[in-house]
Amino acid sequence: MFHKISIKVMLSFGLFLSSLVSSNIALAEDTPKSFFDLSAKDIRGKTVHFSQYRGKVVLVVNTASQCGFTPQLKDLETLFKKYKDQGFIVLAFPSNDFKQDPAENEKLHTFAKEEYGTTFPFFDKAPVKGPQKQPVYAYLTNAKPGVLFSEVSWNFEKFLINRKGEVIERWNSITAPASSGVVKKIEKALAEPM
Hints:
Layout: H1 2-30, E1 39-41, E2 47-49, E3 57-63, H2 72-83, E4 88-94, H3 105-116, H4 135-143, E5 158-161, E6 167-171, H5 180-191
Parallel strand pairs: 3-4
Antiparallel strand pairs: 1-2, 3-5, 5-6
């Protein structure tokens, strides 16, 4: 009798392990290999496939219109204009995770354009942290965890993606987009071949 129970337990355990391995393989297959394998809805609700940015250096920033760091939008626009012809782009992801961007998409986009002259792409306002965070930020925070926390800790955190779609740098909100450290990393990434 003990032998029959042991066989049943071993078979059940084997099936359990098999399902775990299968689910891990499925998760691994679903995980994007590159930033350029992702997509997101833009500010108007249209799906944008990031494959269109393949070969570019990308700076991803979570934005908010009522934050003390909101003036960074001006520096982000300056960077975008300065380096866009070399293959650089800024992608803005508004979020109300920190209760500083309650406006609807159209209003916050209009605000950014009118107040800071932004011309770089904005995406649909969505969570950048927590269990509901959008897939783009799930990928970014997994690829480049923060020093203390993997989650985004405030508005205007920045992620730099190289031409191969690899997340190569992450800066906190305090780091200004026009700081020498950010500019040097962007220039270095632009100088590297694909």
